[in-house]
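Supplementary Methods, section 5.1.

A reviewer requested that the exact input to the structure prediction be made available. We therefore reproduce it here, unchanged from the version used in the analyses.
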Amino acid sequence: MKIQQVVCIDCGAHADYHPALLECPACGSTWLEARYNLSTFSSRLLEELPARPFNLWRYAELLPVPALPPSLQLGEGGTPLLHAGKLGSMLGLPHLYFKDERKNATASFKDRQAAVNVAAFLHYNIDRAVVASTGNVAISYSAYCARAGINLWAFITSLVPAIKMHEIALYGTRIVKVTGTYDQAKTLAAEFARERNLFIDRGPRNVATIESMKTIAFEIAEQLGIFHEPVAGFPFQAPDWYIQAVSGGMGPIGVLKGFQELLAMGWIDRLPAIACIQTDGCSPMVQAWKQNAPEAVVVERPHTHISTLTTGNPGRSYAILRERMDAAAGGVMESVSDEEAFRAMVMLARTEGLSVEPAAAVAFAGTIKLAQGGVLKPEDRIVINCSGHTVPIEHRQIPAGWSLDIDLSKPALTEHPQDGLLAALTMLDERRTREILIVDDHPDARRLIRRILLTQGKYAIREAGSGPEALAEALRNPPDLILLDIMMPEMDGFTVIDHLKENPATASIPIIVITAKSLSAQERRVLEGQIARFMTKGDLLDEDLLSEVERSIQLEDPRHED
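The structure derived from this sequence is encoded token-by-token as follows.
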């Protein structure tokens, strides 16, 4: 066995690891943690890594059980770390990355959890198991249990999207659908497992689950060592921030444990700060964090459409996570609305080509909020857990007016097909084009705004990458509207506005300020009466931008003209 022992975090007692060991034999605590004699193999492991496959089992010495046999593996772990260049440019964060956990076997980071636990089942001859889930855990366990021939019961709430329930059932898992909260489903699952003496995954209190999550930290540190030159004497590179959407807290607890082990082995020079993001409708950890409370504020009835984040009572996870964050590099807990998460889904699809699940979008929306609040700095190296792929898109995730419809069954088209078709296509062209000048020193930000506007087919777009260039362009040919970034080198947006308003040729051009910076009350007063609207870059893909553009330049629909 590679594992040294499990240790009770309350009394310090040691015991041999076994998946069925649910509590400390000395004090009865249910919080046990794996410990390794890191010094005995860290040097050898580092030497052997280059020759090993890049997957979860690459770090086998730091896992509690032997790897799944190759015939039962599904490609778990080894997911890409990708640069979020366009989003980072918009937010003024040039070192923004996302860990693309969608590339796991069932398109979720929970495949790590299922793979390591199923490896434990096989090693200890466990052939029946129970999980409580809001969707992704049950799907992951179902896939791996089906492959390994293990019987699985899944307790899921009725709020889980039907498409996920169907996938769980497809694997042969026995589903128990609970009309109630996720916390109630967990209680029923635990009682069911106790009565039948079945293994149950208890989330952060499950040793193998926490150990599986730390492999995310191992991979990130190794991959960042490729993107950035590691600190002298340290082979891997830790980020300054790790950001993840949180329900029960096991992900950040495991990831932080992984970074702590890397630090203990001398592979990284510091620990990252952790940002835990929840939904406004179910944010027991965030509420406690902001109240500086020692325990989570229990949410009895979650009010969110994002069902995978509906743990209303995380129990002791909050206290443990908070304590370990404070002992490491600190961090923050923040919440975002469902609307902000769904808007982030659209933004990621259009800027980075990412189709993500709502829970992953919560992490990205939280990143936007922290950037706008100045918590994240331009020099920071930031990694977001892109935890999973989206399920089929729901109507609430798509902005209004997402399509232009042509009905080829109209009488005019059937009587004169060619003329009618040309008339229909003409409806997509605007007879009157208005000119918009986009001013931003980041090319990716200009490219994004251009793309949004051109989807409407109404505008001629010009661009300027600096304040002086914007003034010259506006004087040469005054546009109908200017979209202006405030934070620019050489000449900031405030100075640009002053020059525009001083010149009679440009004084009447409406201006919409779009920036990643949260303006102070004094700065907002300076802009009063000078601009048509102030918008943050996190709102760029909201339909409000397009409607505000039309309102500001008083653009009429050409199809209503005489």
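Residues 393-399, 427-431, 555-562 have pLDDT under 50 and may be disordered. These observations are discussed further in the main text.
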